[in-house]
């Protein structure tokens, strides 16, 4: 959640993820952690403030972040995800939460993941989804369709993330999509979300200003108490 982020972006990412919910009352962080609950040591790559640590058994979380600006949870190693200070086969699980589309060296990343993840270990990747499916998404499609068209370093790491994992020699066990939603009670909330979602990794970090302004204005017109903004996410579970 931190690659290319500015000061305070880690806090924004956690705040956005904690505010998002689904119909069953689950949130993105707990949803991401679920396949890793029975793993031993879990490596959280580009962990930011480390919200995933709160959902895992005590002593089984290790964060890695290139900047380690806000290590609210510990232990956190300061390292690039393609150059990890860990021995081969050191961890039982790895999580990549909303960072894959923005990382520059995917070949190096997957090579390092294969090295440090023990044979049979679990890899969980959570990415935004650009495909429109739910009724709420369809209603907003004319306004939101330009959001994911540009601004991603690797747009293929959204709804084609399964192909990337398979090409990197991982067996994809599941690929689930959940339309999480964020409250949209008033115009101020609409403008705040348009500012925060790119910084949280849910929308492209380099979203053009013209698109931001148009989307903010459109959401502000629709904002009302009880209304929500869909943020569909995909969770892929793979095995080494």
TrEMBL record:
Keywords: Methyltransferase, Transferase. GO terms for molecular function: methyltransferase activity. InterPro entries: SAM-dependent_MTases_sf. Transmembrane segments: none annotated. Its EC number is 2.1.1.-. GO terms for biological process: methylation. It is an enzyme of class 2 (transferase). CDD domains: AdoMet_MTases. This is Class I SAM-dependent methyltransferase. The lineage of its organism: Bacteria, Bacillati, Actinomycetota, Actinomycetes, Pseudonocardiales.
């Amino acid at each position: 959640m931190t690659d290319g982020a500015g000061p305070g972006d880690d806090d924004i990412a956690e705040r956005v993820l904690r505010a998002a919910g689904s119909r069953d009352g689950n949130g993105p962080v707990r949803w991401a952690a679920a396949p890793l609950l029975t793993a031993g040591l879990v490596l959280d790559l580009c962990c930011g403030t480390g919200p995933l640590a709160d959902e895992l058994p005590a002593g089984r979380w290790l964060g890695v972040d290139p900047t380690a600006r806000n290590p609210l949870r510990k232990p956190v190693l300061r390292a690039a995800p393609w150059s990890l200070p860990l021995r081969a086969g050191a961890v039982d699980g790895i999580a990549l939460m909303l960072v894959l589309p923005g990382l520059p060296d995917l070949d190096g990343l997957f090579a390092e993941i294969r090295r440090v993840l023990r044979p049979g270990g679990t890899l969980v990747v959570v990415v935004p989804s650009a495909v429109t499916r739910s009724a709420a998404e369809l209603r907003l499609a004319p306004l939101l369709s330009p959001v994911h068209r540009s601004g991603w370093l690797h747009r293929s790491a959204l709804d084609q993330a399964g192909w990337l994992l398979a090409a990197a020699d991982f067996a994809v066990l599941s690929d689930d999509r959940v339309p999480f939603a964020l409250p949209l009670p008033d115009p101020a909330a609409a403008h705040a979300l348009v500012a925060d979602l790119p910084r949280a990794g849910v929308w492209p970090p380099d979203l053009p200003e013209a698109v931001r302004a148009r989307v903010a204005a459109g959401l502000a017109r629709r904002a009302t108490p009880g209304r929500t903004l869909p943020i569909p996410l995909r969770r892929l579970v793979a095995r080494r």
